[in-house]
Amino acid sequence: MQLKVVYLLLNLGLNNIKMKKYLFITFILLSLCGFSQKKPLWLEASWRESHYPANSFLTGFSQDIRKKREPIAEASERVKNIATGYVAKNLISNIQTVSENYSKSIAHGNNEKLQSTFEMQTKAETDAIITGIKVESYYDKKSKQVYSFAYVNKKEVSGYYKTQISMLIQQVEGHIFTADQLKQQTEKIKAEAEYNKTTPLFTKIEYAQILLSALDKNIDEESSQIQKSINLRNKVTQALAALAQGPSLFINCDAQLFNISTNMLENKLKAELAKNNCIFVSDSLQADWLISIEAQAEKYNDIYNTYYSYVNATITLQKRYNNQVVYKNELKEKGGSARDYKDAAEKAYIEIANKISEELIKYIE
Q: N or C: which end of the chain has fewer CB within 10 A?
């Protein structure tokens, strides 16, 4: 623009000194107009409050004097970071107002520890929120003051964390599904590890739910998915408790004492297996392992008023989920008694129960 004016005046033949002065003054004024910077409206607190109300926006405003010999770009970036930090501080402040009530709504954990976790995670995740933050800055050359204004729409932040919650819940459900499969396959250690992978995910889910509640006090269950996450956590807790109890066994034992059914072998076997944290179920569908035993007692002989009996047992151990036979064997044990063959057979049953237990533990632990 300035050059066009100069060119025009020269073409008009204005070569006298007076016109040259006019030309110089005009050029300077146009230059000053071209390089002047208008102060932004957001410098006024009333304008910020009216255009970025607290019910719709998280904001941060900062100003600081430019340090001696500090590049303007560096000063601007420094003050921008401060303004952005105020947005994060605003988030933490909102969280403090709701986290206590939220932590009471879930039936686990230490509230104080939970609160601390939320505060640390808010600070750590500021970078994630920054993706939605807009930051403006202004430098006043005369006063050497640097101003910055950061703001983010609450709906945008809420939308981000709603998506995060859905994604994290899907990951939790994936780990639970895998853990359930491993549990059915009696892979206890692997199943426990898979269940435990959900712990950090639940922490992130709870953080996001707290943040949503802080941003919108009227957030609904469909958006926050609080009850769904509580149900999933309870499922994991119950599953880990069940794993801690040891493997579940269903025993089908047909033991004969000279053609008479007896529970002696089954009772003794359960007593021995219980020492290794095994639990016993009456429904085979609820068991990790299926144990089938057929046993018979037979008279052998008597020598010098001592009676001897044998017990023969066939044992089968299967994984319940696929009926895979992992152990099958025949064991034989002799018992002796000065009383009679029956007493000798009962002693043999006690001894063979110990042997069966030792064999089975090798596979089911």
A: N
- Tokens 């000279």 found at: 258
Extract the tokens encoding 115.
């609160």
pLDDT band at 34 (very low <50, low <70, confident <90, very high): very low
Higher pLDDT, 123 or 219: 219
356: CB partners within 8 A, 6+ apart: 269, 293, 313, 315, 331
Q: Does pLDDT of 354 surpass 80?
A: yes
Closest CA to 323 of 200, 185, 211: 185
Q: How far apart are CA 111 and CA 93, in angstroms?
A: 17
Q: How far apart are alpha carbons 78 and 67 in whole angstroms?
A: 11
SS3 1: coil
Q: Residue 304 corresponds to which tokens in the numbers above?
A: 């010098």
Please report, to the nearest 10 degrees, the dihedral formed by the alpha carbons of residues 204, 125, 157, 134 taken in order: -170
Structure confidence by residue, pLDDT tens digits, 118-147: 555 554 555 455 557 899 999 999 999 999
Closest CA to 256 of 317, 328, 342: 342
- Residue 355, judged by CB atoms within 10 A of its CB (0-12, 13-18, 19+), counts as middle
Q: 149 pairs with which residues across the strands?
A: 61, 136
Q: What is the rounded distance in angstroms from the CA atom of residue 70 to the CA atom of residue 298? A: 101
Nearest to 148 by CA among 78, 221, 62: 62
pLDDT at 151 over 90: yes
CA distance 78 to 73: 9
pLDDT in tens, 156-214: 888 888 999 999 999 999 999 999 999 888 788 899 999 999 999 999 999 888 888 87
Closest CA to 93 of 114, 115, 108, 110: 115
State the DSSP H helix or E strand holding residue 37, giving kind and residue range, or none if neither: none
